[in-house]
Amino acid sequence: MKTLTAFATLAALGLTTAAQADIRIGATVSETGPAAFLGDPEAKTLKMMVEKLNAAGGINGEMIALTLYDDGGDPNKARTFATRLVEDDEVQAIIGGTTTGTTMSIVPVVEDAEIPFISLAGAIEIIDPVKEWVFKTPHTDRMACQKIFEDMKAQGITKIGMISGTGGFGASMREQCLEVVGDYGIEVLADESYGPTDADMTPQLTNIKNTAGIEAVLNADFGQGPSVVTRNYQQLAVGLPLYQSHGVASKGFIDLAGAEATEGVRLPGTALLVGDLLAGDDPQKPVVQAYIDEYQAAYGEAPSTFGGYAHDAFAILADALARAGSTDPEDIRDAIEQTSGLAGTTGVVTMTPEDHLGFDLSAFQMLEIQNGNWTLVQ
To answer: Mean per-residue pLDDT for 249-278?
Structure first.
């Protein structure tokens, strides 16, 4: 079993210029804008890991140059920056695509240029069907639906209400949930939605509350919308279990919605959120703890799930580069596809030509918020 901290033995850090470096990696993330709570920790993580790797000697003695752009969550800017990374910066691999929208704008660029790309976004369409040059680190929205419905079924819940954002992630997750919900003997009795700028979801939640027979509610979305939903849910005293997506699996969600409103909320999340609760022999535990300690030391704050996605993407790429012994994009792509048993913050990754994600539902933890903190659902 390998761990993602193993890349530190391959190389070391200090950001270098493209002229000095032998390996050129590009990134475009949403460091500012509406998805900054996702992209900012991703950018910080990539900078930290490149510096650490170069300080340790690089990969097979070759230094890494990271060219990082901030697309502000704008798909058009993400596509422009991806094109610049390929044509002007001549990178050999790209990490990024903070959101589904920015990722999908990057995909045709990397596919045309034949440059390996590791996405940090959640929608299943990113890697299903498999695209030759595209990989990703977060669990898919379909997996989130399945993990949630597994838990609902275990609780004896058979009738639910759904409320979803109309943006890329929310719309995709809603579609995926509706496709698989019947597999768990669960019926959706109410199906509401809201826009990305809506500041009050009381009308939609009132409709759900007034629908007879509903036993729980699922909110499919990321960003600020779920925090509004959670606060309105408490204000309306709906009184039913509330489930959220992995798109809000961060302390920021608890802080924004409030500890009282989030009490009892369940959602699927990564091992990073509950590293101290993992078993001592869990292969992810040392990786998670090392990342938390390093990020805390570098930035004076705890990392988020989303920073963890960037951590895993860079570690997968570093591992592939070390094994490939080459900076040829096709060789790097092939090596990523041969990743095996690599433990990260999100799961233990084993890629194949048919699987460009590399883990299953067992990589998800079902979490419940209690007293403003994450707890494991047993």
So the answer is: 92
Q: Which of 105, 43, 101 is nearest to 80 (CA)?
A: 105
Label the pairing between strands 373-376 and 365-370: antiparallel
**Cα–Cα distances in Å, from 44 out to 14, 81, 151, 311?**
14, 18, 34, 10
Classify 213 in phi/psi space as left (phi over 0), alpha (psi -120 to 50) or beta. left
**Residue 233 and residue 242 in contact, taking contact as beta carbons nearer than 8 Å:** yes
Query: 160 in helix, strand or coil?
Result: strand
Q: Quote the CA–CA distance of 347 and 360 in Å, as a whole number.
A: 8
Token output for 92? 């050999």
Determine the Cα–Cα distance for residues 15 and 332; give it in Å rounded to an integer: 21
Mean pLDDT for 11-31 is: 68
Name the residue among 284, 300, 276, 253 with its Cα closest to residue 364. 284
The pLDDT score that the predictor gives to residue 12 is: 31
Q: Please give the full DSSP string across 294-357, using - where no structure is assigned.
A: HHHHHHSS---HHHHHHHHHHHHHHHHHHHHT---HHHHHHHHHT--SEE-SS-EE--BTTBSS
Whole-structure pTM over 0.70, yes or no?
yes
Domains of the chain in sequence order: 2-139+283-359 (3.40.50.2300), 141-269 (3.40.50.2300)
Token pair 């993407």 is at which residue? 313
- List of residues 6+ apart from 147 with CB closer than 8 A: 139, 268, 361, 364, 366
- Report helix, strand or coil for 111: helix
Strand partners, 189: none
The mean pLDDT of 31-49, rounded to a whole number, is 96
Whether the predicted pLDDT of 21 surpasses 80: no
Tokens encoding 243: 């489930």
Find where tokens 């697309």 sit. Answer: 71
Say how far apart CA 183 and CA 171 lie, in whole Å: 20
Structure confidence by residue, pLDDT tens digits, 294-347: 999 999 999 999 999 999 999 999 999 999 999 999 999 999 999 999 999 999
pLDDT of residue 19: 41
Q: Nearest Cα to 367, choosing from 298, 276, 282, 273?
A: 273
C-alpha–C-alpha distance, residues 123 and 103, integer Å: 9
Cα–Cα distance for residue pair 281/292, rounded to 1 Å: 18
37 membership: H or E segment, kind and range? helix 36-55
